[in-house]
Design brief:
This protein has 407 residues and is an alpha/beta fold. The strands form 2 sheets. An 8-stranded mixed β-sheet has the order 5-4-3-2-1-6-8-7, sandwiched between helices. A 6-stranded mixed β-sheet has the order 11-10-9-12-14-13, sandwiched between helices. Helix 6 crosses helix 15, helix 10 packs across helix 11 and helix 11 crosses helix 13. The protein is 37% helix and 19% strand.
């Protein structure tokens, strides 16, 4: 029997998301979430989707609420749920465990099998991603302990953007200082941008090498990328996920002197500024809501703060679409993905309104239709396709991990 299953783990500071996939046919066998780890009200939701050898009574959707002390206990609980469905971590069909790791720095530019040296290097990158990499490390450590004989593969959010030319990745600051503190533009959401840019080419029926696409990953966190022939040449996030588009709680692009002004004039501490820009800005800072559905509802009712926040959000999108059109020279498609990009037709319409000179035009009727399938929503006469492609970061991680361990 050829091992073809990959367990994908996304370990957050107080949560673990997981999916078990069979790469023989790219099907999902199970998925779930453990949240509020370390609290008395920890919650595990598990869903058996297909496969397994357990009777149907053990499958379906199950939920449990109760204290889960730490990530070790969380992963053991996940293993128990999978075992109840006949798909336990002890299965010989498990080929790899794929881990989402947010920051790979300049060293990790492709999926990597984790050994002690690699794990140490990921730990060394914690200063670049203090909120994410520690939890990612914990997930790897626990998974290695549970199944030491199975390859643990780290797939890095930053890797897809490592192909940016140096002039796009560098900030125009003193080079020695930049090198000393690893200050450069890394970009994030890389697995999503990789998956969606490739899926866009498939949707167009063209080889990925022949397609130039602007990908707009719009969720609570949001980023844009310019992808030429399957290779990222520019992206909106930088040293951290704070740079770029207006987001749910993050400011996006900002005059750096704002930070100095807040410190000198407002007396803000570094931690207070960090909290302001990452957690209290964006849509939330402008109108008090970071959920685009609520912002749209309020704007539709004439709420001035929500209308202004929406206008700022869309204005920033237009700027990036225009800028990336210039970077690419020829654009074959603009693709929307993630929660807002896939579901908020108003955002797509507003972002592309007035961009006919760039070859962009929507079929407003097609754009208004909700669907979970990849689709084109551009007008037939448009020179540039407009696509909506649901992202699938778990499948992308599984694909990369499986390719690495079976090549």
């Amino acid at each position: 029997m050829t091992a073809s299953r990959v367990l994908v783990l996304n370990s957050g500071s107080s949560s673990v998301k997981y999916q078990l996939l069979d790469m023989a046919d790219r099907s999902r066998l199970a998925s779930g979430l453990v949240e509020r780890i370390g609290e008395e009200t920890s919650r595990l939701v598990h869903e058996r989707i297909s496969g397994g050898t357990a009777p149907d009574a053990a499958g379906g959707r199950r939920e449990q609420v109760g204290p889960i002390a730490d990530h070790g206990a969380a992963l053991k609980a996940v293993a128990a749920e999978l075992a109840a469905d006949g798909m336990g971590l002890d299965s010989p069909e498990l080929a790899a465990v794929g881990h989402r790791v947010v920051h790979g720095g300049t060293r990790f530019t492709r999926p990597t099998v984790v050994d002690d040296e690699v794990l140490a290097e990921i730990r060394n990158l914690i200063p670049l991603a203090p909120l994410h990499n520690p939890a990612n490390v914990t997930g790897i450590e626990v998974a290695r302990a549970l199944r030491a004989d199975v390859p643990q593969v780290a797939v890095f959010d930053t890797a897809f953007h490592s192909t940016m030319p140096e002039y796009a990745a560098r900030y125009a600051i003193d080079a020695a200082t930049a090198d000393a503190y690893s200050i450069r533009r890394y970009g994030f959401h890389g697995t999503s941008h990789a998956y969606v840019s490739r899926a866009t080419a498939e949707l167009l029926g063209r080889p990925v090498e022949d397609v130039n696409v602007i990908v707009l990953h719009l969720g609570n966190g949001a980023s844009a990328s310019a992808v030429r022939g399957g290779v990222c040449v520019e992206t909106s996030m930088g040293l951290t996920p704070l740079e770029g588009l207006v987001m749910g709680t993050r400011s996006g692009d900002l005059d750096p002197a704002v930070v100095l002004h807040l410190a000198r004039v407002g007396g803000f501490s570094v931690d207070e500024i960090d909290s302001l820009l990452n957690k209290k800005s964006g849509l939330l800072g402008m109108c008090g809501d970071n959920d685009m559905r609520e912002v749209l509802r309020r704007a539709g009712e004439g709420d001035e703060a929500a209308s202004l926040a929406f206008a700022a959000y869309v204005h920033r999108l237009k700027k990036y679409i225009g800028a990336y059109s210039a970077v690419l020279g020829r654009v074959d498609a603009v693709t929307f993905t993630a929660g807002v990009g896939e579901n908020a037709h108003q955002v797509r319409a507003a972002a592309l309104d007035g961009l006919a000179e760039l070859g962009l035009a929507l079929d407003l009727e097609a754009n208004a239709v909700r669907s979970g399938e990849p689709r084109l929503v551009s007008a037939e006469y448009a020179r540039v396709a407009v696509a909506v492609v649901p992202t699938d970061e778990e499948l992308e991680i599984a694909t990369q991990a499986y390719a690495l361990v079976t090549r």
